[in-house]
Write a structure and sequence with these properties.
Protein name: Gfo/Idh/MocA family oxidoreductase
Oligomer: single chain
CATH superfamily of the largest domain: Dihydrodipicolinate Reductase, domain 2
Helix content: 25-40%
Shape: globular
Number of strands: 15
Strand order of the largest sheet: 14-13-12-11-7-10-9-8-15
CATH topology of the largest domain: Dihydrodipicolinate Reductase, domain 2
GO molecular function: nucleotide binding; oxidoreductase activity
Bound molecules: nicotinamide-adenine-dinucleotide
Number of helices: 9
Strand content: 15-25%
Distance between the termini: 21 Å
Number of domains: 2
Keywords: Oxidoreductase
Structural class: alpha/beta
Family: Belongs to the Gfo/Idh/MocA family.
């Protein structure tokens, strides 16, 4: 029996990626929709065969509690709404899959975790990269010291974020600019590859003066993460330059690179480990799979077999803690901020 999903928010990600991915899932299926736009929802419902009684507005959202076909609520709203809809969803007795970033503050993340615990429901943050086969292969190589010890990771996620009039450029809705939206991929993926938590971070923030897109949120952030093993990560994110979505792991006897690493499709894994001076890159062929389908089917497995998801609420909370430290550092002109490492990352699922 597939696990039934209600998807909340019919924006770009839902319409272009998640609903088509649900159709490819083996363990998950779409059973309900939640939207503030009844006309749009009617069209989407007809396209995906969802009956009118399984369509909800933000006002009738809490009535999901009376719909036994819905086991999971997938929250795909602007970041500032994640906490409220997670908490209300847990109170309605549903498991929650919530888009990244988990929320806009550590406090909200803690409230979300508490609400799900109290309701006896699971909470997963939708870090699709952690379910994607090539990135998982890199994790295996890094953690297995395939090319000796990892020394440095460089990660970049930049794109031109488009016109000023959008929620991503409003601090109250987005929480921040490039960092929580796309810089988060650098941060989360580095933590995922290494399986350890940074103990010191530092950041610099730059915004083009007069650019109407960046009156409330930052355009660019450069940040470093220092890990207990000695690994240093150097990360770059920006909302005002051409797309780059890549990282490279520098280890003692080789490097491993994903370029692109964070896109939905067309990911490419390369490595070089021939003797110095003869360096040749080689591509590692791994069949592409739909990251969103893998992620949802993982959560459905957890629901069916009563397991903790690989990216639970605590994973989102930890990123939020680090992002708050990065902003603190940026505000002080780049002074390093020390972090306590108090989460235990699961090794595998
Ligand atoms: P979007 O702007 O395309 O859609 C947002 C939806 O929320 C729209 O349907 C909009 O009508 C609705 N909404 C409700 N209240 C709103 C309000 N006050 N202001 C604006 N919109 C409101 O955004 P999106 O790109 O679909 O992003 C949604 C969430 O998904 C975000 O949290 C984002 O970070 C996340 N996301 C994740 C990925 C990924 O790869 N995992 C990719 C894109 C977006």
């Amino acid at each position: 029996q597939r696990v039934g999903y209600a998807v909340v928010g019919l924006g770009h990600l839902t319409l272009e990626e998640l609903l088509p991915a649900l159709a490819q899932c083996k363990k998950s299926k779409l059973v309900a929709l939640v939207s503030g736009d009844a006309d749009k929802m009617g069209k989407v419902a007809r396209q995906y065969g969802i009956a009118p009684q399984n369509c909800y507005s933000y006002q009738t959202y809490d009535n999901l509690k009376d719909n036994p076909a819905v086991e999971v609520i997938y929250i795909v709203l602007p970041n500032s709404m994640h906490a409220e809809y997670t908490i209300r969803g847990a109170r309605a007795g549903k498991h929650i899959l919530c888009e990244k970033p988990m929320a806009n503050s550590v406090k909200e993340c803690e409230q979300m975790i508490e609400a799900c615990q109290k309701a006896g429901k699971k909470l997963m943050i939708a870090y699709r990269i952690q379910y994607e086969p090539m990135n998982r292969k890199v994790q295996e190589m890094v953690r297995g010291n395939a090319f000796g010890k990892t020394k440095i990771i460089e990660a970049t996620n930049t794109q031109n974020q488009g016109p000023p009039d959008q929620w991503r450029h409003k601090k109250a809705l987005a929480g921040g600019g490039a960092l929580p939206d796309i810089g988060l991929y650098c941060l989360n993926t580095v933590r995922f590859l290494l399986g350890e938590e940074p103990t010191e971070v530092a950041a610099h923030q730059y915004t083009t003066p007069g650019d109407p897109r960046f009156t409330e949120v930052e355009e660019n952030m450069l940040f470093t993460l220092r890990f207990p093993s000695g690994v240093l990560a150097n990360c770059v994110t920006g909302y005002g330059s051409y797309t780059s979505k890549r990282y490279r792991v520098q280890a003692e006897t080789g490097w491993i690179q994903m370029d692109p690493a964070f896109s939905y499709h067309g990911l490419r894994l390369e490595r070089a480990h021939a003797p110095e001076g003869t360096q040749q890159r080689e591509q590692v062929g791994i069949a592409e799979k739909n990251q969103f389908a893998l992620e949802m089917d993982h959560f459905s497995d957890c629901v069916r077999h009563n397991q903790t998801p690989y990216t639970p609420g605590e994973e989102g909370l930890q990123d939020q803690r680090i992002m708050e430290a990065l902003y603190q550092s940026a505000r002080s002109g780049g002074k390093p901020v020390k972090l306590k490492s108090d989460t235990n990352k699961l090794d595998a699922f």
